[in-house]
Amino acid sequence: MAAQNDQLDSSFNDLDYLSGFGNSLESEAIAGALPRGQNSPLLCPYGLYAEQISGTIKPSVTHEPFAPRSPSHGKLVSEFNDSNSVTTPTQLRWRPVDIPDRPTDFIDGLFTVCGAGSSFLRHGYAIHMYTANKSMENCALCNADGDFLIVPQKGRLWITTECGKLHVSPGEIAVLPQGFRFSVEMPDGPSRGYVAEIFGTHFQLPDLGPIGANGLAASRDFLVPKAWFEDGMRPGYTIVQKYGGELFTAKQDFSPFNVVAWHGNYAPYKYDLSKFCPYNTVLVDHSDPSINTVLTAPTDKPGVALLDFVIFPPRWLVAEHTFRPPYYHRNCMSEFMGLIYGGYEAKADGFLPGGASLHSCMTPHGPDTKTYEATIALGDEAKPHKITNTMAFMFESCLMPRICLWALNSPFRDHDYYQCWIGLKSHFKLEDAAVQNAQI
Ligand SMILES: O=C(O)Cc1cc(O)ccc1O
Ligand SMILES: [Fe+2]
Hints:
This protein has four helices and 29 strands. It has two domains: 17-273, Jelly Rolls (Sandwich); 276-415, Jelly Rolls. Helix content is 6%, strand content 36%. Strands 1-17-21-14-11-16-9-8-29-6 form a ten-stranded antiparallel β-sheet. A seven-stranded mixed β-sheet has the order 5-19-18-10-15-12-13, with no helix packed on it. The chain has a six-stranded antiparallel β-sheet with strand order 7-26-25-28-23-22, with no helix packed on it. It is mostly beta strands. It has helices at 369-378, 405-408, 419-422, 430-439; strands spanning 17-19, 25-28, 49-50, 55-56, 67-68, 85-86, 92-94, 110-118, 123-132, 139-143, 147-154, 157-161, 164-168, 172-176, 181-185, 191-199, 222-225, 233-243, 246-254, 259-264, 269-272, 293-298, 305-312, 315-317, 334-342, 356-359, 385-387, 390-397, 402-404. It is globular and about 90 Å long. Strand 22 (293-298) and strand 23 (305-312) form a beta hairpin. This is Homogentisate 1,2-dioxygenase. One of its GO terms (molecular function) is homogentisate 1,2-dioxygenase activity.
């Protein structure tokens, strides 16, 4: 490899970021590299090419034609229909999927669980998971279908993008908008995580409404990489293009991470979930989980999300004479849940870090029997209580998901999930009601 930034090997240590959500930013790895006063000068500084999305040493078009990737991947879906997925209103749950022993990088380890709509029609979403153990080598992924929101559950991800480097640990998330080329290193080896992909829109911060100016995720905690580039020949470098859920490859002889400077408000970013400032009830009742929305991808209907990313972080539970765990419910949104670490307040067992559950539109769900009974046994004596060591999350959509067959038939599927509610007994006391009514 020829001339590169000095700190290539240590470049993920002590990374410095730009900050702010949706801000127009600019970054130069070499001072003076950004064209000033215009975007397309006849000659750019230092002999660079200007390119929309990036300002590069060589434009990204200089590659050989794309061809279907071999071996084909086969487990990524971006248009959900009866050729690749099925529907069921049944409550679904999965144990954490084992991380393979065979060398598997982020691309090979990625598989779709469920989703709705179509990347071709620019409306919908896909929920994927990955289990992998090795860095992508001499290749970069470019997703033409949509934006990726990556939630690592195990193992750090060192992500090189055309805008620079992001160092993402479990407990943090990264968003890689449509069209950016990126490469994922896995410094910890065995790694697992969740990915929400949205078609046709981008994530926003939720409107804070009556909360006012402060709270939930703060704009300044979203971190954007600083420009970083590498120069020189990289023979046999592969660009993997995800297009319509299929993967295509094209060869080029240089690294795509050759962007010396960039500006604009379209950039990858990361966010540390521990920075989230949760709001909740301070007297009675249980809030709708949308109160804990970190990011939302809207539809054209105000207030109806294509995909909300909601978290259940450590927090105080203080509500009086209230059933504090999530209430029993069925609702118009479909809820995919994952657990990054710890336990989840509605499930005493069976919902494990790295596992997942899906409760689709109008499918009833809620706390398992053990959680219900423990809550009732504690009764109204429950003091303010802090739930700690927990980070669960939900991808919630107004579109009804179809489920990929490999997820439905997975050996990690918990076929006994329904048993967690079967023991819920009727506590209805008809005699008490009769006595009370007689007294009136
Ligand atoms: O179903 C779930 O566990 C998610 C959820 C949590 C909560 O606190 C209230 C409603 C809800 O859907
Ligand atoms: Fe729910």
